[in-house]
Amino acid sequence: MKEITADQLRKLYIDFFVSKGHKQISGASLIPENDPTVLFTTAGMHPLVPYILGAEHPAGKRLCDYQKCIRTGDIDSVGDPHHLTFFEMLGNWSLGDYFKHDMIAYSFEFLTKVLEIPVDRLSVTVFEGDDEVPRDTEAADRWAELGIDRSHIYFMPREDNWWGPAGETGPCGPDSEMFFDTGRPACGPDCKPGCKCGKYFEIWNDVFMQYRKEKDGTFHEMERKCIDTGMGIERTVAVLQGKKSVYETEVFQPIIHEIEELSGKKYGENAEDDISIRIISDHIRTSVFILGDQKGMAPSNVGQGYILRRLIRRAVRHGKKIGIDHPFLSGLSDVVIKLYGEPYPELVEHTAFIHEELEKEEEKFSVALTKGEKEFEKMIPNLMKGNSRVISGRLAFKLYDTYGFPIELTMELAAEHGFTVDEKGFHEAFEKHQALSRAGAEKEFKGGLADHSEQTTALHTATHLLHAALRKVLGTHVGQKGSNITAERLRFDFTHPAPMTKEEIQQVEDLVNDAIKRDLPVTVETMTLDEARKAGAIAFFDSKYGEKVTVYTIGDFSKEVCGGPHVTHTGDMGHFHILKEQSSSAGVRRIKAVLEK
């Protein structure tokens, strides 16, 4: 079995699928385009949803890439040996071309021939079927035909081996997951892939999008079937290197060595210190990728900026826990940039911004901690008047939620005044807060571009008209920094140094509405990014040289590189109205607008 690095795995994967007729495409921004369902790009397929749903991709029907991803649901689990917020995902796609028979053969060949994993160390899971969709015997038979022993093929229920749809309706289907047997003893007679004991390590997933879920809940087989796969680089490299944890690989070791230098602690000697070192390592890596993204954003109190602020402050807090008593994240970021500068040159390009924002946020957090201490000191006289010498969990959580004041510091200060803290109450308040956040995210997930509704399609086209109008009124320095579309409204972030005047807002509205009234045709062409720029198209992202892109032209008004979808002409879009113009972050403004029928 090959013991390979992350850089080698990235290259081996791309080279393998290019040899199978796939075109390598550029990975997308971490900030999703026009998608309110998630804060960050969560998987390689996320930016490709429009093409999986039927749009023609400019690079063709066979694609592969490596994609930077962030998943925020487990932030508070980071610190154990396995959880990460940022990770890289390798993926390949067939958009109505080859299907299950070929994909399983590709997976088997890559795992056993390229990575040289012994066949007897592999196990796979397939969909067991239910009342709505039959058992996936086709996938099971194909694995067996290629050489996987039937005893290593497991039929699993929908919650384990089914993907989608992205919205209420749309493409979905069974998947087949591949697991590496670590050689650890089974935890019992029911031990199988998916078991939490650590014997089986998932390394790859093939999704077979062969059904469409309808509004009535039924599933129909589609003529145009698609393949979507995902392999996590960090996890796979850890397996191939025989490591117990991703933190033991070369992806994290340089970061950990620098933290050891800064703190005087040694990784592997103290369990509590190890948790802090892992948290700092993960969070600085993720923070650098958010700040250094093509659409890089600064810390703030909302959305992606809030997650970034949380990550930075949690890293600083754990730095203090292990004895780092000075600002350190800016220097530590250089280790991450050096590690990833080649595959992700945008990090090098945005080095100054990364340094500046990390330094500012560390300073702000220092001020916030001082405020938290003062707030605590203000509370003490009232607490002393009572009979109890226990600070409630609700109060401790308020200090944490409002000032980012760590529970450990609250306990420390409390002890100095003869108090204890209701830790159980704090964790209950914390859990309640997390549950509300998750519920909000699930509610948000129901909307979005994924369903390609008439409303979201019209609003997507409206963002192009808005973008062009802003550049006409404010100047060509205006560039899109992000957009978010639901069926009800659009939200558009753009670069501009000052609030817009009432007159400027009215001018922009009038220009957009005039373009709508003129019933302009919306046309689409495929060309290279260089050709698109020469043709006058707006394009605010980097693409590999010679890579094909789609350019949407709206009459004589707008020409922009985009993945779609759009209306065919503007006349039926409705009346465009700006609800609000406000600051999003330093140098970035935000517009919320609607289309009124």
The oligomeric state of the chains shown is: single chain
> How much helix is in the residues?
40-55%
Give the uncertain stretches in residue-range form: 440-449
Described by strand count, sense and barrel closure, the largest sheet is: 9 strands, mixed
In total, the number of strands is: 18
Number of helices: 17
Our estimate of the beta-strand percent is 15-25%
Cα separation of the termini = 62 Å
Rounded to the nearest angstrom, the radius of gyration is: 26 Å
The structural class is alpha+beta
What best-fitting shape do the alpha-carbon axes yield? globular
Q: Which whole number gives the mean pLDDT?
A: 90
Short summary:
The protein has 597 residues and is an alpha+beta fold.
Overview of this protein structure:
Helix content is 40%, strand content 21%. The protein has 597 residues and is α+β, with helices and mostly antiparallel strands. Strands 1, 2, 3, 4, 5, 6, 7, 8 and 9 form a 9-stranded mixed sheet that branches. The protein has a 4-stranded antiparallel sheet with strand order 12-13-18-17, covered by helices on one side. Strands 14-15-16 form a 3-stranded antiparallel sheet. Helix 3 runs parallel beside helix 4 (137-146). It starts with 5 loop residues before the first helix and ends with a strand.
Features:
597 residues, alpha+beta, nine-stranded mixed β-sheet, 17 helices, 18 strands, 21% strand
Topology:
Blueprint: H1 6-19, E1 23-24, H2 49-52, E2 62-70, E3 86-95, H3 100-114, E4 122-127, H4 137-146, E5 153-156, E6 162-163, E7 170-181, E8 200-213, E9 219-232, H5 233-240, H6 253-263, H7 271-291, H8 303-321, H9 329-340, H10 345-349, H11 351-385, E10 390-391, H12 393-403, H13 407-416, E11 420-421, H14 423-445, H15 454-474, E12 480-485, E13 490-495, H16 502-517, E14 522-528, H17 529-534, E15 548-554, E16 558-561, E17 575-585, E18 588-596
Parallel strand pairs: 1-2, 4-5, 10-11
Antiparallel strand pairs: 2-3, 3-9, 4-7, 6-7, 7-8, 8-9, 12-13, 13-18, 14-15, 15-16, 17-18
